[in-house]
Amino acid sequence: MRALEIEALDVDLGGRPVLRDVRLHLDRGELVGLLGPNGAGKTTLLRAILALIRSRRGRVLVEGGPTRPGRSGIGYVPQRHEFSWDFPISVEQAVMSGRTGRLGLLRRPGVTDWRAVGDALDRVQLTGLRRRPVGELSGGQRQRVLVARALALAPSILLLDEPFTGLDMPTQELLGDLFTSLAREDRAVLMTTHDLVAAVDSCTRLVLLNGRIIADGRPADLQDADLWTQTFGVSATSALLKLVRAA
Amino acid sequence: MSITDFLTDLFNPDLAFLPKALAIAVMSSVVCGVVGCYVVLRGMAFIGDAVTHAVFPGIAVAFVLQGSLVLGGAVAGVATALLIAIFSQNRRVKEDSLIGVFLVAAFALGIVIISQAPGYAGSLQQFLFGSITGIPDRDLYVVGGAGLVILGLVLVLHKEFVAVCLDREMSRSMGLPVFWLDIVLYVLVTLAVVISLQTIGNILVLALLITPAAAARLLTDRLGVMMLLAPVIGGTSALVGLYLSWSYDTPVGGTIVLVATAVFLTAWLIAPRHGVLTRRWKRPMEEPSPR
Fold it and tell me: B177 CA to chain A: closest CA distance, Å?
């Protein structure tokens, strides 16, 4: 059974077509990079997978079944600016907030929940900072808090939205390694990114998206300049192509 | 006036309105302090402002019809809170513009309604600026009961409110009913405002909601501590404010708000970690290690 299977998905936003005939599958163990320009529908695709928006046509199967918010084994890592970092809350409480939906009304976190949070913090190497207010963390640490929050649900699929934005190269490398090893631990990881170097370097597969899927393959198989000019709408002499060829 | 004189007056049967006013002022300040924490942390002070104005037409109608002011205010406030929550789901007009529309419209409606009642000028002043006299016994139970209901709901839904404050997108993906949680929070803010109207008045009640919570935020980086500190600051401000108001014959609502503001300014200057002066005195804090 595939971890994630997207079949002929059409999505409209405000009456405009955003995604058309998107077919994509992910297996456990894969780290897939979703690349495309602004407005290509990357975040929309993630939100459709999470069943946060309705699709016009097609369907999304997670572990063989349809997505239900809060019930499917999907860990979601939204963009960093979605989170209120000035909130007076510690790292471990922020990670625990990821289990709110699963806990349900009237239930307080128990031993199992704290163990899951502890494991998630261990996994992203934030255990030493678990009592620190989230407002005092650096960008890379914040990204890892969000990853831990998703991991606290022990998901089989991880969706990462622009995890590298605004981070320096060493931090990106560290996170890239983390995502690679998370995928190797029998998870399917799908991440959107603008960072071609990091994507080519760490992803096992790249998907080029611009309203529809333009290419889907191993980084080494996507050398054809046409695919990239078509996706990003850049000229054949663009710096982007030089970057892809070099990487 | 000394504290002893104040205590004597409190227990003087001829001044029965005084302990009643004190009880209502302290209870409503405590409730506002707790609810205000969400208002401050979510940056929805403007919504609080809108709701405080929105209760006015309800009070006016209740006044004209000789009904319960608390009940009238609650109905109007909740209705406006629902309108704002519903309209704000449509992102074409931003929330703050909507609030601007409804806030002034509701207040205008209140003024038109109350002008129909004979001898309204005196009552108007009482609504707007609060008063410690003329509180019916019944209100004591209404305020106490409503306060307990509000605090109970906060206790039950705290985890969910925090999740939505932290990250709406993530909350939706967890299957939380974000829209309904918004509505419940707006209604709680409205009720907290309504039970505070009697003593503090319509114009000043916003301060009870924002000032203690904002002062508490300056004093701590822990949410639990903040939600204990804010009601303590609010309750103490109400107590001290009422004492000063009684001693120096100043308006009670204004005095309570000024005491709370003094606490806020003190916290702003000398809070342990975030105070302006504290930071200047201490060496700059160690920067968190990079990455």
Answer: 10
